[in-house]
């Protein structure tokens, strides 16, 4: 089939609807991490603040580790019944679990039971996010032409970063530090119920993707998406994609989220000030996601992603040393600290901006939701999600920022070397041509 000739207004509607839901889901997911320092004293024993903080970060990481299971479950559902209704289910589950975190009694009220309830709700968050993002990538990719897929999915890629910005903005603007630490921290979680209601309403107006409608009408949907994705020649491509996304995920969380943890844990900058610095840097750097998505349509996905891996591995140490100098408590150089964070975010733009287009082009439509979701959440959930707990734990144990940065530097360096030989360029692949009976690649597009 040919790509649909959607008007610019219709394309914007598709991207905005998908991205709006993603922003809210990522807001829900990251409000937990943004408030880690406060949650640690609400849900764990205050007499051991370091252990409490590490326990909270561990709970934050649990949400990442469970994400591939959500990808397996909801990817299977998305390839069987469709993209639209599956990511409506995940959006609702994420909103409900996040809102409930806002009403959990604290450790002082019910003891350790508070932490167990928080753990359960964090698992639900991770499961739902595991099914959300692969669906959103697939949904947008299956609406746009081959020549502009990087550009339009690049807009979608801004949603996680904007979700963090929203979470930081809510924290920053709500109230003073003392009141926020005492009870105001609940409000950002409760706000999720309102935001999710709006996002569900927007998404209900959407139609199923043209590609899924076409393969469903022809009776070509997968009978068993798991078997076709993981017990066939497609497994090789899932493994290659996982390596690419592990490197991307590590850069994503090392550049964005550990910058926040670094300011709070290493430099002892308060929650509101660190949120301002990181939030401003994120806003300045976010357009690079669209820029590099667009550029990948011109020169390819592979050179841009590999360039981001290499720059991250070579410059993380000097950039974090500089951020430390500019963020000394009592003498913070706000413009320079924000600039360093913006540079870090530009690396995210390089590795993350083109990744949605790459994944959508890498797999056939009948198993695209499953095949995109699983490597995406293995890479980002494990490769990236472990960054906060590993880096913070190493720093607490050694007191050395250099030691804490070994993992964020080593992973993209190894990913660069492996992907140099394993990763295939997908820019010239068309997802609109009839799929070959074997193999995970679409038909080459003729210039």
From TrEMBL:
Protein name: MHS family MFS transporter
InterPro entries, per the entry: MFS, MFS_dom, MFS_trans_sf, Sugar_transporter_CS
Source species of the chain: Eiseniibacteriota bacterium
Localization annotation: Cell membrane
Cellular component, GO, one term: plasma membrane
Keywords: Cell membrane, Membrane, Transmembrane, Transmembrane helix, Transport
UniProt-listed Gene3D superfamilies: MFS general substrate transporter like domains (1.20.1250.20)
Listed transmembrane segments: 27-44, 50-78, 85-104, 110-130, 151-171, 183-202, 237-259, 271-292, 304-323, 335-360, 381-399, 405-423
Membrane-topology descriptor: Multi-pass membrane protein
Sequence ranges assigned to domain Major facilitator superfamily (MFS) profile in this UniProt record: 14-427
SUPFAM superfamilies: MFS general substrate transporter
GO MF annotation list: transmembrane transporter activity
Family annotation (PANTHER family): MAJOR FACILITATOR SUPERFAMILY TRANSPORTER (PTHR43045:SF7), SHIKIMATE TRANSPORTER (PTHR43045)
């Amino acid at each position: 089939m040919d790509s649909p000739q959607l008007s610019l207004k219709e394309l914007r509607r598709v991207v905005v609807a998908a991205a709006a839901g993603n922003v809210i889901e990522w807001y829900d997911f990251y409000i937990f991490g943004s408030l880690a320092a406060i949650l640690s004293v609400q849900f764990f024993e205050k007499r051991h603040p370091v252990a409490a903080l590490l326990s909270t970060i561990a709970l934050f990481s649990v949400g990442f580790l469970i994400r591939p299971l959500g990808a397996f479950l909801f990817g299977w559902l998305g390839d069987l019944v469709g993209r639209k209704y599956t990511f409506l289910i995940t959006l609702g589950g994420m909103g409900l679990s996040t809102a409930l975190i806002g009403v959990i009694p604290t450790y002082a009220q019910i003891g350790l039971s508070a932490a167990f309830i928080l753990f359960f709700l964090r698992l639900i968050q991770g499961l739902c996010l595991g099914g959300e993002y692969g669906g959103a990538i697939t949904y947008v990719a299956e609406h746009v032409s081959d020549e502009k897929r990087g550009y339009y999915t690049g807009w979608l890629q801004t949603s996680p970063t904007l979700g963090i910005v929203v979470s930081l903005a809510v924290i920053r603007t709500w109230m003073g530090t003392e009141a926020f630490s005492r009870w105001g921290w609940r409000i950002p979680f409760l706000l999720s119920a309102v935001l999710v209601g709006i996002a569900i309403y927007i998404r209900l107006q959407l139609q199923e993707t043209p590609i899924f409608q076409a393969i469903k009408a022809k009776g070509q949907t997968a009978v068993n998406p798991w078997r076709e994705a993981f017990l066939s020649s497609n497994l090789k491509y899932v493994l290659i994609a996982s390596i690419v996304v592990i490197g991307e995920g590590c850069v994503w969380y090392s550049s964005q989220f550990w910058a926040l943890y670094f300011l709070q844990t290493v430099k002892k900058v308060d929650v509101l000030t660190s949120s301002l610095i990181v939030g401003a840097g994120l806003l300045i750097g976010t357009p690079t996601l669209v820029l590099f998505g667009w550029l990948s349509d011109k020169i390819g996905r592979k050179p841009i992603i590999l360039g981001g891996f290499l720059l991250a591995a070579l410059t993380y140490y000097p950039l974090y040393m500089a951020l430390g100098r500019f963020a000394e408590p009592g003498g913070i150089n706000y413009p320079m600290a924000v600039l360093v964070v913006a540079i870090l975010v530009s690396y995210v733009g390089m590795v993350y901006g083109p990744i949605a287009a790459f994944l959508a082009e890498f797999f056939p439509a009948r198993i695209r939701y499953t095949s995109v979701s699983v490597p995406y959440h293995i890479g980002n959930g494990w490769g990236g999600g472990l960054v906060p707990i590993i880096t913070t734990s190493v720093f607490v144990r050694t007191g050395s920022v250099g030691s804490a940065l070994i993992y964020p530097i080593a992973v993209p360096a190894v990913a660069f070397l492996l992907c140099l030989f394993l990763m295939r360029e997908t820019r010239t692949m068309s997802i609109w041509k009839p799929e070959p009976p074997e193999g995970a690649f679409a038909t080459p597009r003729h210039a």
